[in-house]
Structure formats: structure tokens, C-alpha cells
Amino acid sequence: MKNILERYDLVVGLEIHVQLNTESKLFASDKNSFGDVPNTNVSPITLAHPGTLPKPNRSVISHAIKMGLACNCDIASYTTFDRKNYFYPDLPKGYQTTQDQYPICRGGYLDVKSGNDKKRIKFNRIHIEEDAGKSSHDPEHEGTLLDYNRAGTPLIEMVTEPEISSAEEAGNLLTEIRKIVRYINVGDGNMEQGSLRCDANISLKPVGSKQLGKRVEIKNMNSIRNVQRAINHEIERQSALLDDGKTVLQETRGFNDETGETTGQRSKEEANDYRYFPCPDLLPIAISKDWIDQIQSTLPKLPHKVLADLQENYQLNLYDAEIIADSKELSDYFYTTSKITSHYKRVANWIIGPIKSYLNESNSSIENFEIKPTLLAEIIDLVVQDKLSFSIASTRLLPALIKDPKQSALDVAQKLQLLQSDNQNELIKIIEEVIANMPEKAEAYKNGKKGLLGMFMGEVMKRSGGKANPKTANKLIAEILEK
Ligand code: ADP
Ligand code: MG
């Protein structure tokens, strides 16, 4: 592979479809919802009965503007809908309403990780369009079942410039887009369920050549990993053709999940002529600066800003910051807790360690986590004050508080006798017993084998049930041994 990329430049452009999470559809008041009983959200508009007219959904437009702003796009002040004509059983109108001439957003970019550097990937445009229904093949009756619930639900399509140059960059761009979609809450970004879908346009050209090579388009991949596998497979396939002096056929190909290979579906010559034209049923839409400003004011701090903020202002390392910035809910939880306690690194450790494992095990999420930030801050304070160790706090106090989160951390720790005893007399008694049981070791220590201190420490901690304060214990053992 490395060898191939010394001879050819890889050029990839992505077309990414994002399902929007509005209440209703793009041009009808039917519910926009996944997994309902088939054909229940199907008004005459969705089914394209004669005489029905579309009515644009304001929330779809504001969601699209929001995504455009988050991706640094220019928002159009004038936008229109067009018809893209093709026939398909799950497209009842015989055309798809989309945007061709005057899309809602133009330009824009995202910065993504590429090796150890950042790379800016530009967008050509973002436009709004409606989704089709869903066909499923019914082996029992050898027919096709049609579910029109999804017909007319809103999508945005994001089209990048052809300037992605590795599978890694493509994956990082998709990851960033998915994160933003979730942060700004315009969709759920779930690739497995098809709410985020990606077509990849892939070509090779001789290294350094200005002219782009012939591209193939790989349709509808349902995971980031598959997009990357398809790109890598095309690098092998196209370079073999070019090495043999052959040309790459410009065509649409499908990706086979099992073999990891792509196969030809239709060539450009057989491609549809969509005969785009302005939709006569929908008036152009004017978008005011006020509206854009108002939407701008609802944008939260975006993932890349959160990532930088966590490193610069909360002293987290990149690894920790990336985990916490991964979702808005997780970073919100971090920020709220860090308003109450300034032990930021500890807050991060708690979230990344015991909290995330508990949430994973219980299949829960941070929004529903029983321990609210104030209570976590209390637990952290107890550990900071050496009242109990991190390990006792995470393995015993945390589970107890999860069961009873109304109690204070201190009360529960006391009730369960988890507090490290600072009671010196008790501790001294334990130490004296330990030393009395090992007279030779104590003698050896006095004669200079200072390394034995750790062994005494271990014994004392064991006898105290882990509750002795390690610092105090250490000091007392040394004092008593020296006597
Ligand atoms: P179409 O309308 O035929 O799909 P577009 O110009 O809209 O063509 O491009 C679709 C996608 O293909 C864009 O993401 C673009 O960046 C990408 N693309 C265009 N030319 C190439 C090429 N030679 N190699 C790789 N990607 C390309
Ligand atoms: Mg295309």
C-alpha cells in the first residue's frame, strides 16, 4: 500500500447524508420517527396523492443552518428547492425534492487529524433533501414490501471538495461530523441505523499531477470502518489497472461487507439523467440575517473548542481530553463538576475510569447517571482530604451511593466504616503487634535494611482493612521501628 502511494496520489470526496431529528417530515406534518409500525406515518402528502402540496418545515431549515454554521459555511440568503426526477418504488412522487441551484449552505470546512498534523477539508455545499421510503425483500412471498414511513423525512447532504487524501482523514472527518451532529442536536448520527450515510468518490492520479483521475463512487456505506476499507480496496484495484496501462471506468460501485471488495453497479453512460428543475410547488425562501444570528446564538461550544479548552484551561492531557470531549453530555458533566471542585485531573480520572465502566456495564448514559456532579465533587473531596483511598472510594463508596444517591458521601462512608482511621492509638497498637510478630525483620531494619519498611506497611494496611491513612502509617512505623 505504501508502495502504491509513492506512485499515486489518492483523491477522495465524500457525500454525507445526515438524517435530521425534527418532529415532523420535510414537507408534511407526519411524524419523523424511526422504527414505527410500517406505513403509519403516511399522509396523502407523503404518498403523493394527486392535488397534494408540500409545505416546508421551518425546523428543517433551521437545523440545516445550524449544521452549516457549525461547519463554517456561508448561509444562503436565498434558497430554493428543485426536483430530481427518477423512478423508484419507494419514491412515490417519481422525483425527489432536493436543492440543486441554490443550496442552503455553501463553502465551509472542518479541521481533522491527519497523522500528527491537522488538515483542513473544505465543503462544496450542504443542501436539504427528502429521504425515500424503504423497500425490503420478503423471501416468503418473493415480493417486495414497501414502508413509506421514511418517505419525505428530512436529510441534509454534505458534499466535500475532492481533497481527502487517506482513509484515515476520511474516517476522522466522519467522526467529527458525527460528533458535531450530536453536540448541536440536529440528529443522532447513528451509522448502523442509517441516520448517517456516506458515499465515497475515489480516484488516483500520478503523484503531483494537477489533473484529477477518473473516479468511482461507492454508495451507502453504513460504518466508518467500511468507508475506510472501501477506500483501501479501491487504492489496490485502481492502481493495478493504472499500472497495466488500463483506464479506470467511471462508475458507481457497491461495497461488500463480507469480502471487503467493491463491485460495479452502473457506469456513467448508463447513469440517470435527473433532469433537475425548480420545484413549481415551492416558493424560494429568504433567510434573514436575524434568523441566522438567532440560530448562531443557540450553538454550544463545539467539540474541537472543548478539546482545546480541556487541555489549555483544565490541564488535561490529549488522551483524557479526547475521551471527555467525545460527547456534549460527558463534557457538560465534566464542566459542571469542575465548577465545584478544582481537582480537574481527578474529575477526569473518575469519569474515564469508574464512571464510564459503570455506565458501560449497566448500559446507561451519563445523562441518567445517579451520581450528580455535586455528589462526585464530595467524593473527590473526601479522597483529597485523605479520608479514604481512591480505590475504596471507587469500589465501595461509589456503588453504595449509586444505590442511594440522596445521602451525602461522608454519611455513607461513615456508615460503611470506609473512612481511613486517623485514630493514632488504634494504629499504633496495630503497628506494635505487626512488629512484635516479626522480631528478626525489625532487627534487620534497625541494622540498616530500610527497604523492609514497605513490607511492614503492607502488613499494617492489611490488618487495618485498608483503612489506615498511608502517610500517617508510614511515619509511625518508621518512628516505632527506630525506637
Ligand atoms: P456529481 O454531481 O456527479 O455527483 P459532484 O461534482 O457533485 O459530482 O461531486 C461529487 C463528489 O465527488 C464530491 O464530493 C467531489 O469532491 C467528488 N469528486 C469529484 N471529482 C472527483 C475525483 N476526480 N476524485 C475523487 N472525488 C471526486
Ligand atoms: Mg454525486
Shape designation: elongated
Summarize the amount of helix as a percent range. Answer: 25-40%
- Find the count of extended strands (DSSP E, 2+ residues): 17
Structural class: alpha+beta
Main beta-sheet annotation: 10 strands, mixed
Please indicate the percent range of residues in DSSP E strands (runs of 2 or more).
Answer: 15-25%
Structure description:
By secondary structure, the chain is α+β, with helices and mostly antiparallel strands. It folds into 3 domains: 4-291, no CATH class; 303-415, no CATH class; 424-481, Arc Repressor Mutant, subunit A, CATH 1.10.10.410. It has 16 helices and 17 strands. Strands 1, 2, 6, 7, 8, 11, 12, 13, 14 and 15 form a 10-stranded mixed β-sheet that branches. Helix 2 crosses helix 5. The longest helix has 20 residues, at 224-243. The protein starts with a helix and ends with a helix. The mean pLDDT is 94. Bound molecules: adenosine-5'-diphosphate and magnesium ion.
